[in-house]
Amino acid sequence: MFWFMQGLCFLPVFLVIWSSSTFIISYVIAIFRKDVDVIFPYISDTGANPPESCIFGLMTFISACAGVVTMYARYKFVEKLSVETRVVNPRLNKTALVLGILSCFSMCIVATFQETTVVKVHDAGALLFFISGVSYITVQSVISYQAYPFGSSVVVCRVRLGISILAALALFPTVICAIFVKQTTLHRNSEDQDYPFHLASAVCEWVVAFSFVCFFLTYIDDFKLFTLRVNTEFED
Q1: Do 121 and 106 meet the contact criterion of CB atoms below 8 Å apart?
Q2: What are phi and psi of 35, to 5 degrees?
Q3: What CA–CA distance (Å, rounded) separates 212 from 134?
Q4: pLDDT tens-digit series, residues 128-146
């Protein structure tokens, strides 16, 4: 049996590959059509105009669905582990699930309400995604240390913690610098006064996004260990 066929590890593998492809494909199309600048546009900029906005919206929706399924599988794994070992706080596990679903829902808001059409809703969705997404991986890092040694190895725990710290550190300049960006067009001029803030915010946004996505790579070994089954019961 191939490694990606063991347990449910295909879920995080698919999620990471598909989500990364979503960002990269929309970026390449936007660059090819000269809709955005080559140097660090906002991720939302690459999905603002058709046809890339259509592709970005569809692929993001699929990513969100895959994210919910993966997060729920992780929740059930930790729940089972908690029942047998009582090392993880069940409320913390439920909190992580809620934060994860909220981040996936926010992804759909960002992709559906483009920044060039409904700015306030788009910005609110982006802010909610970043905060809930970073919070999710942070809580999962805490859960990993609580479950050790019954869950992941100490190396995986440290990797998750490192990714969480990186995402959290990048979150603040992403949000703070974006406040000082006044230009609303997709093409930026390096001579503009707010360009340094745009560049810092855009770079950190890509760091946060890929940190969130790559975090799910650490689920692969865990997901090899279990499967989920659906039981059908008839009511009398």
Answers
A1: no
A2: -85, -25
A3: 7
A4: 999 999 999 999 999 999 8
H or E segment and range at residue 157: helix 154-179
* DSSP line for 9-51: THHHHHHHHHHHHHHHHHHHHHHHTTSS-SS---TGGGGSSTT
Per DSSP, the chain holds a count of helices (H) and strands (E) of 7, 0
Q: Tell me, what DSSP letter sits at residue 7?
A: T
Question: pLDDT tens for residues 31-53?
Answer: 998 888 888 899 988 888 888 88
CA atoms within 13 A on the CB side of 217: 13
- CA dist 140 and 196 (Å) reads 33
pLDDT of residue 148: 83
